[in-house]
């Protein structure tokens, strides 16, 4: 049985090996680690820095700059609600509140079972169809207040399904 | 359009060629220091007007710098001329005719015909608005702020006329950020930070460590040491570049926080390594508040390291001895006496010994820490007053092979370049040197060049930081076995010749043909092929061939080397082999190339130049040469012994043998630094009179009967000569604690011996040096004051000094290829001693540590560790932190182990900064065949694990007991007796 630390190490090493040859390898490496571990563990910084001839500070600078990278584990599903101008102009604030209520989470929080994280985002590039929300990789437009629950339910049921598949 | 008020065409050329080091021009000059020095180089110039004044500057100069050259100072926060323009603070906005908006003057290049306005009502309002935003998130505690009086934010707020902040202070802010006081020398107060990134950029561009970043983004942006760590735990190496660059109190020396702003300063030269950085000693009365690197310093160009910048507290440490002391034997208590009594006592002893044992039974050792003038007096005293040539210097144990090897091949006992030269190198070989630890400011300049694309070859048994680090990666790390340098240089030369990569034209015109042809026959021998040397050096043939090709054909090739080359039984041979390589590839005589010994101590070069060798008078001229000797005899009014005297090792041997009885040691701790400690100790005990002149009661002083308190570099005037032959002034900033400067002490002793010296000031000694040393004839204190520093030779042939040597012809005429046969050292591994020990240094400590151990630098290195490879450790059941015995044919000592892959299997490594470690108890009597430089770098050893983590070896126990006993006799508390029993 693999320990947690060993797993982290393996993911980090794999991500570095897979992208080290690229001209700008840092972002692809971080994306792969974030996607597999749902965060960038602090212990990964040194390894990545050494492998890429960077300093730990530089890697930290990049990780902390991009909101897509987190230092604490995200939920298995991340729901990002757009709060930019276009979405706010068509009632986005009410949608935000609906999501918060439906999940019982504030922005930046993750459910206690580690399944869902609620995040705010400033523009998904989908302004023509505001208000917008992104669930994992999928973007939904023209969200209505009543549509929020459906999105949340779908996200949760998909999680349950993938869990069954894994078992 | 504004009327043209002035046409100072020359003024800008003056700016380009000779910028004022006390002025911040905002952005760096587009010209490199090499361009600046080359007055004949073609400059592309651009002319325009700024605020109505016409100005001509080199193309590529920023508008800000062009304005500054007219003394028009555009307000700025994120710009400073030590780092590239960044354009983030939006304070330096200007208007340019024909352009829209208000571009930042720091990032906009000045162009031909440009018409710039730096001040008008519109710009003033823009700047005030920007400043208002800054101040809305900045504490308003100027009066109690440590930067008060030295704050650029305050200055700029004043300059832009900020009168109110309309935003209030209630909103989100950074005022409650917590101060990080973890670094012993400076504080980090993020509440005062304006996020200008100057510190981050200084860490990257100036120092090359990349320990700082801006974390997060937008309002959350914050300076972060490594990953939001306290400074002390981060990758920071405490060079001080960030503190130097910070425009506010965010990064501030603790000494300034404690004492307030200094009120006067003097420019002086650092007394640590051979880089010889120029510093501003910033004072309050006679209290040294801080040392800041001087931008006008031609060796360091405004940069510093943790030692020179911060580790000066030893100068006023409570263990400084400030009264002369005498005793009749080393088991007696010290008796404090007046200077006159001490001089008389010492002189009587020395004369008594000479009467009993002969004129040659006494001698002296000069110090590479002391000034040229002081060293000059020591050798003069030995020759004129002692009446023999028994004078040697600690260069004996470090770079004597450099002196010998380079004299033989090139004709001068010194490195060929200046430090600026590295900026023009394309391929750099670093051999047996660890610049990031031992010569950090040079390392930063090298790393800058590597980031620009130069290639690096590291030749070292150990993986030094330059091999692989942030933005640095050596093309090749040739991990040779200790003791095989000569086989390596021969293999390099063999490949270059075999592949016809040598510069025939250079060799034919510049080098001795006969010598070259003989050497060619020698080097073509198959035994030097990388295929055959692989088994000796351990360097894979492919890596060696690739390295040889790279060095020979990669453009300007420069070799930098250190004690890993010289401190071997074939040290001199290796140095000659390096010179051969440089001549073979034509890599000599211009910027960017050369043979560059990295000198360990501040004045190793100078102490050698000043004739502190038993066979050479100043300027490396043989004492046996009648005409040279008569010159000195005439000037000194004394007859000089034509016979060469004793080297340090001869002195020690002769003392053990019983016919050498008196020794004067100036500022050197031979009991700690010289090899085979037990032999040294026996020799010192055998002396009837040992006179030690030092700032501390060092290990050697414990065997002394006369102690003459020395003065630190802050307490005296003089000059140091660094690794690039640069003579730089040392200026007194405080009175000598013991009342006399070192040169006055030597003079006092010499007078007591009956040979009169009557110098009133070291400048008079320099006059004598200039009169008697052909390479120094143009050197004087007046010129040093005017020019800052001078690189010798400075004489009729080179009135402005010599940044690059051997440009048109070698000093000896034709460069001489010397046959460099590899001979394995006698120090061989056996079943009993299966591993090789090699020694070195670390960043925070300096040499025997007498200075740095008495500073907060101990935080980084409070004991010497034995580095051992995991496979060797596993075989012996050793883990990091274990106490281990390390035994050689000479002796044994106990150290704490550090298991690391930095060292290769079968090779272990330690430092010698702490006397109780006894690293030199293990090193042997083996030495360089030509110069007797000890073979510190190769000792066959065995390592055993000890069960008791606090165990002390027999020698260590004796050492501790002796130190404690001596401390009692001197009635001082000794910090060196802290070793656990």
Characterization of the model:
- The complex is a heterodimer of chains A (167) and B (981).
- The longest helix of chain A has 22 residues.
- In chain A, 29% of the residues are buried.
- In chain A, strands 2-3-1-4-5 form a 5-stranded mixed β-sheet, with helices on one face.
- Chain A is globular.
- Chain A folds into 2 domains: 62 residues; 90 residues, Glutaredoxin, CATH 3.40.30.10.
- In chain A, strand 4 and strand 5 form a beta hairpin.
- In chain A, helix 1 packs antiparallel against helix 2, helix 1 packs parallel to helix 3 and helix 6 crosses helix 7.
- Chain A has 167 residues and is an alpha+beta fold.
- Chain A is 53% helix and 12% strand.
- With 981 residues, chain B is of the alpha/beta class.
- Chain B has 4 domains: 119 residues, 2Fe-2S iron-sulphur cluster binding domain, sarcosine oxidase, alpha subunit, N-terminal domain (Ubiquitin-like (UB roll)), CATH 3.10.20.440; 243 residues, Rossmann fold; 198 residues, Dimethylsulfoxide Reductase, domain 2; 143 residues, Barwin-like endoglucanases.
- Helix content of chain B is 30%, strand content 16%.
- Chain B is built from 32 helices and 36 strands.
- Chain B has a 7-stranded mixed β-sheet, covered by helices on one side.
- Chain B starts with 8 loop residues before the first helix and ends in a 12-residue tail after the last helix.
- The N terminus and C terminus of chain B are likely disordered.
- Chains A and B meet through helix 3 and helix 4 of A and strand 6, strand 18 and strand 19 of B.
Give me some keywords for this one:
heterodimer; A: 167 residues; alpha+beta; Glutaredoxin; 2 domains; 5-stranded mixed beta sheet; 12% strand; globular; B: 981 residues; alpha/beta; Ubiquitin-like (UB roll); Rossmann fold; Dimethylsulfoxide Reductase, domain 2; 6-stranded mixed beta sheet; 36 strands; disordered N terminus; disordered C terminus
């Amino acid at each position: 049985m693999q320990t947690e630390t060993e797993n982290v190490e393996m993911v980090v090493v794999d991500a570095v090996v897979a992208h080290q040859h690229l001209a700008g390898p840092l972002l692809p490496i971080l994306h792969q680690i974030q996607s597999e571990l749902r965060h960038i563990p602090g212990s990964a910084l040194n390894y990545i820095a050494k492998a890429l001839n960077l300093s730990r500070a530089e890697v930290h600078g990049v990780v902390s700059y991009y909101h897509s990278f987190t230092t604490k584990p995200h939920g298995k599903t991340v729901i990002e609600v757009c709060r930019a101008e276009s979405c706010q102009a068509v009632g986005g604030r009410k949608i935000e509140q609906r999501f918060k209520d439906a999940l019982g989470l504030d922005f930046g929080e993750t459910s206690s079972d580690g399944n869902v994280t609620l995040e705010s985002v400033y523009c998904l590039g989908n302004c023509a169809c505001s208000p917008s929300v992104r669930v994992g990789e999928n973007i939904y437009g023209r969200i209505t207040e009543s549509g929020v629950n459906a999105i949340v339910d779908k996200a949760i049921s998909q999680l349950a399904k993938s869990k069954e598949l894994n078992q | 359009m504004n009327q043209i008020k002035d046409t100072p065409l020359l003024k800008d050329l003056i700016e380009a060629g000779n910028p004022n080091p006390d002025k911040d021009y905002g952005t760096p000059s587009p010209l490199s220091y090499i361009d600046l020095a080359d007055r004949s180089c073609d400059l592309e110039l651009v002319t325009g007007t700024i605020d109505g004044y016409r100005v001509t500057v080199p193309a590529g100069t920023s508008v800000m710098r062009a304005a500054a050259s007219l003394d028009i100072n555009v307000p700025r926060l994120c710009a400073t001329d030590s780092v590239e323009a960044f354009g983030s603070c939006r304070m330096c906005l200007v208007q340019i005719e024909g352009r829209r908006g208000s571009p930042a003057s720091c990032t906009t290049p000045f162009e031909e015909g440009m018409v710039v306005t730096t001040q008008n009502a519109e710009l003033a309002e823009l700047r005030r608005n920007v400043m208002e935003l800054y101040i809305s998130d900045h504490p308003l505690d100027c009066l109690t702020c440590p930067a008060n009086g030295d704050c650029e934010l305050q200055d700029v707020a004043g300059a832009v006329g900020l009168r109110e902040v309309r935003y209030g202070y209630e909103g989100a802010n950074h005022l409650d950020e917590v101060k990080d006081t973890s670094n012993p020398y400076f504080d980090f107060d993020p509440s005062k930070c304006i996020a200008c990134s100057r510190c981050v950029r200084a860490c990257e561009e100036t120092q090359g460590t990349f320990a700082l970043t801006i974390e997060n983004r937008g309002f959350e942006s914050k300076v972060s040491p490594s990953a939001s760590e306290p400074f002390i735990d981060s990758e920071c190496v405490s060079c001080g570049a960030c503190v130097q660059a910070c425009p506010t109190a965010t990064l501030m020396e603790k000494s300034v926080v404690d004492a307030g702003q200094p009120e006067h300063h003097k420019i002086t030269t650092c007394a640590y390594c051979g880089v010889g950085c120029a510093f501003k000693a910033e004072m309050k009365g006679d209290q040294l508040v801080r040392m800041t690197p001087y931008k006008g310093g031609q060796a360091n160009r405004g940069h510093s390291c943790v030692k020179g910048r911060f580790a000066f507290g030893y100068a006023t440490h409570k263990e400084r001895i400030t009264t002369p002391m005498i005793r009749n034997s080393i088991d007696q208590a010290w008796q404090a006496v007046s200077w006159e009594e001490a001089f008389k006592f010492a002189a009587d002893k020395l004369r008594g010994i000479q009467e009993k044992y002969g004129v040659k039974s006494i001698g002296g050792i000069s110090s590479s820490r002391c000034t040229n003038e002081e060293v000059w007096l020591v050798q003069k005293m030995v020759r004129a007053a002692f009446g023999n040539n028994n004078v040697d210097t600690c260069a004996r144990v470090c770079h004597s092979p450099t002196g010998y090897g380079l004299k033989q091949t090139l004709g001068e006992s010194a490195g060929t370049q200046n430090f600026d030269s590295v900026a023009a190198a394309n391929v750099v070989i670093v051999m047996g040197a660890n610049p990031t630890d031992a010569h950090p400011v040079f390392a930063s300049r090298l790393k800058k060049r590597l980031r620009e694309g130069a290639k690096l070859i590291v030749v070292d048994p150990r993986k030094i930081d330059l091999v692989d680090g942030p933005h640095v990666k050596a093309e090749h790390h040739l991990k040779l076995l200790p003791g095989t340098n000569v086989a390596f240089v021969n293999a390099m030369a063999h490949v270059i010749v075999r592949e016809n990569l040598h510069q025939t034209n250079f060799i034919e015109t510049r080098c001795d043909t006969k010598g070259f042809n003989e050497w060619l026959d020698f080097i073509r021998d198959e035994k030097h092929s990388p295929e055959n040397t692989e088994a000796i050096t351990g360097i894979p043939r492919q890596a060696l061939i690739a390295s040889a090709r790279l060095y020979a054909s990669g453009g300007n090739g420069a070799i930098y080397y250190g004690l890993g080359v010289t401190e071997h039984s074939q040290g001199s041979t290796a140095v000659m082999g390096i010179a051969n390589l440089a001549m073979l590839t034509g890599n000599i005589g211009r910027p960017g190339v050369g043979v560059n010994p990295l000198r360990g101590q501040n004045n190793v070069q100078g102490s050698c130049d000043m004739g502190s060798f038993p066979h050479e008078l100043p300027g490396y001229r043989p004492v046996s040469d009648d005409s040279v000797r008569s010159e000195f005899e005439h000037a000194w009014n004394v007859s000089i012994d034509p016979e060469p005297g004793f080297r340090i090792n001869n002195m020690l041997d002769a003392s053990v043998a019983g016919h050498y009885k008196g020794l004067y040691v100036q500022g050197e701790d031979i009991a700690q630094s010289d090899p085979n400690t037990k032999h040294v100790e026996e020799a010192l005990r055998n002396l009837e009179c040992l006179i030690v002149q030092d700032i501390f009661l060092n290990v050697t002083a414990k065997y002394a009967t006369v102690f003459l308190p020395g003065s630190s570099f802050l307490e005296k005037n003089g000059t140091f000569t660094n690794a690039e032959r640069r003579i730089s002034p040392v200026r007194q900033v405080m009175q000598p604690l013991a009342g006399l400067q070192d040169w006055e002490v030597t003079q006092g002793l010499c007078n007591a011996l009956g040979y009169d010296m009557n110098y009133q000031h070291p400048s008079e000694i320099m006059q004598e040096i200039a009169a008697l040393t052909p390479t120094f004839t143009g050197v004087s204190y007046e010129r040093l004051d005017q020019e800052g520093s001078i690189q010798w030779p400075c004489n009729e042939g080179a009135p402005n000094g010599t940044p690059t040597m051997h440009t048109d012809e070698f000093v000896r005429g034709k460069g001489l290829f010397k046959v460099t046969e590899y001979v394995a050292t006698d120090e061989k591994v056996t079943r009993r001693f299966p591993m090789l020990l090699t020694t070195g240094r670390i960043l925070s400590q300096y040499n025997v540590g007498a200075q740095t151990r008495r500073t907060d630098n101990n935080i980084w290195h409070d004991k010497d560790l034995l580095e051992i490879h995991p496979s060797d450790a596993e075989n012996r059941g050793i883990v990091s932190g274990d106490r281990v015995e390390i035994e050689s044919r000479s002796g044994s000592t106990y150290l704490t182990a550090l298991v690391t892959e930095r060292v290769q299997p079968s090779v272990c490594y330690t430092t010698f900064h702490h006397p109780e470690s006894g690293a030199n108890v293990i090193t042997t009597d083996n030495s360089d065949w030509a110069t007797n430089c000890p073979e510190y770098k190769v000792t066959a050893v065995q390592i055993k694990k000890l069960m008791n983590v606090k165990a002390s070896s027999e020698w260590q126990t004796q050492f501790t007991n002796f130190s404690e006993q001596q401390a009692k006799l001197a009635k001082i508390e000794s910090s060196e007796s802290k070793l656990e029993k």
